[in-house]
């Protein structure tokens, strides 16, 4: 994995602007600690930082290839999982290769098939290709949004990069956030709307979008979305089909020339990936290493809830024994998590999921001491119906995002001068706009109709937020994390599975559970879902309250411009009891909501955000 940056301007001479592209590249050093490179021309500057995973010599970037007298230059962040399939097709077309890297295969795919190459790719990616003779640059992002790509149009310039901080390193771009950005932070956050960079001058290329930049035009289009297909399989056939797709997805993501491990929580999804990976390792005479996370004294304070019915750690150890992995447990203290709220904010360039982010940041830091690549179980819940809002009627049919049911409560903590932002209306507008994009077959069963809507909402919103979190927390530790359940083929297949089959046996992820029979022990297969672990220790609440208290007492704290100080004081004084409604998803309750506000303050301060409110 890597970080990319670029500046395109067909009206200006950029050839002496190497100091600017150097500054942009510098922001990406954690994404790519192994090497850097840049391409300089009159109208196009590309920069690259590399984390070496495949072909150390042959995969250097920016990569240049000359065909028929024309030059093509690429910068690329990602991994293709059908590299060899594409290579064989391109060899038949008469193309030759100088390396075994997926970078050269991707560049050659563009040379051969042009912009339609993106429709052939199976992988995670964000890339830009400069077609010198056509004087155009093509940018693209993977279908599910695993890899990020931000851009800004300033006059005749288009500036892009893997992270927001990369764009802010350019002198044309200022850290301005207007009322729309603040509304998104409070109504949608920690998620962000597709295409939004929150900052006024920054946009994000949405998942499954590509864009073409020429002297006269900037054209952006969606090149893929889940599409309707008639589902003709029986439940038994679906079980076999899903098992084949899943095992193939995991196997394809085990490629690399560097050490690879797996996250293993003891839940269904990470257990399934670890089991397949361990079996492949054994074929090579190797032992897979797995990692789980826990928190000091968490067993003493764990509380059963609808969203977290069981604790993970004992199950992780059972699974590690079952697959014969070399298992390691990372144990975090409460203070570490609170202290890491700062680093997690800088990694994401935005306020995030509080300790859910900071704990992942610390987890990845420990894993990176021994490994460069890890596989993780994200996305299975979105794709196969693992959340309560897929099975709980009151959540299923809510007229808003089911993971943000209490946006109205958020309004209470806003400053009075922001009262006209109408957070519920903002959230509901995005929600309904997304529903209008969902493809449906004619005369669809009402339950399947709603399930298709929930599926689409989840992959376009909830899943992208989790993928953003995973990318930023891991890559800020120079760790590449792959997500087999985000395979485009799995997503397309699942989109058309009828609800009664997808939720086989009336269980969340029922079909996936049946597909894993023979791969996992029964006690793991039928275990009630438990999400990513969080701390339950009261010391965490104490520390968050103390930090929030200090912010409230600091007259210069930028957060005070946005919040109702008296309301937040009440929340602090009651240790979160005055705000019981979940802020977001399953785990962000009172203490995590305060931690989110702490992250907003960090963000406003460290990024010197200029508020236009």
From TrEMBL:
<feature type="binding site">
    <location>
        <begin position="376"/>
        <end position="377"/>
    </location>
    <ligand>
        <name>ATP</name>
    </ligand>
</feature>
<dbReference type="GO" id="GO:0006529">
    <property type="term" value="P:asparagine biosynthetic process"/>
</dbReference>
<dbReference type="InterPro" id="IPR051786">
    <property type="entry name" value="ASN_synthetase/amidase"/>
</dbReference>
<dbReference type="InterPro" id="IPR033738">
    <property type="entry name" value="AsnB_N"/>
</dbReference>
<keyword id="KW-0436">Ligase</keyword>
<dbReference type="InterPro" id="IPR001962">
    <property type="entry name" value="Asn_synthase"/>
</dbReference>
<keyword id="KW-0028">Amino-acid biosynthesis</keyword>
<dbReference type="InterPro" id="IPR029055">
    <property type="entry name" value="Ntn_hydrolases_N"/>
</dbReference>
<keyword id="KW-0067">ATP-binding</keyword>
<feature type="binding site">
    <location>
        <position position="293"/>
    </location>
    <ligand>
        <name>ATP</name>
    </ligand>
</feature>
<dbReference type="InterPro" id="IPR017932">
    <property type="entry name" value="GATase_2_dom"/>
</dbReference>
<feature type="site" description="Important for beta-aspartyl-AMP intermediate formation">
    <location>
        <position position="378"/>
    </location>
</feature>
<feature type="active site" description="For GATase activity">
    <location>
        <position position="2"/>
    </location>
</feature>
<dbReference type="InterPro" id="IPR006426">
    <property type="entry name" value="Asn_synth_AEB"/>
</dbReference>
<keyword id="KW-0547">Nucleotide-binding</keyword>
<dbReference type="Pfam" id="PF13537">
    <property type="entry name" value="GATase_7"/>
</dbReference>
<comment type="similarity">
    <text>Belongs to the asparagine synthetase family.</text>
</comment>
<feature type="domain" description="Glutamine amidotransferase type-2">
    <location>
        <begin position="2"/>
        <end position="216"/>
    </location>
</feature>
<protein>
    <recommendedName>
        <fullName>asparagine synthase (glutamine-hydrolyzing)</fullName>
        <ecNumber>6.3.5.4</ecNumber>
    </recommendedName>
</protein>
<feature type="binding site">
    <location>
        <position position="102"/>
    </location>
    <ligand>
        <name>L-glutamine</name>
    </ligand>
</feature>
<keyword id="KW-0061">Asparagine biosynthesis</keyword>
<dbReference type="GO" id="GO:0004066">
    <property type="term" value="F:asparagine synthase (glutamine-hydrolyzing) activity"/>
</dbReference>
<dbReference type="InterPro" id="IPR014729">
    <property type="entry name" value="Rossmann-like_a/b/a_fold"/>
</dbReference>
<comment type="pathway">
    <text>Amino-acid biosynthesis; L-asparagine biosynthesis; L-asparagine from L-aspartate (L-Gln route): step 1/1.</text>
</comment>
<dbReference type="Pfam" id="PF00733">
    <property type="entry name" value="Asn_synthase"/>
</dbReference>
<keyword id="KW-0315">Glutamine amidotransferase</keyword>
<dbReference type="GO" id="GO:0005829">
    <property type="term" value="C:cytosol"/>
</dbReference>
<dbReference type="GO" id="GO:0005524">
    <property type="term" value="F:ATP binding"/>
</dbReference>
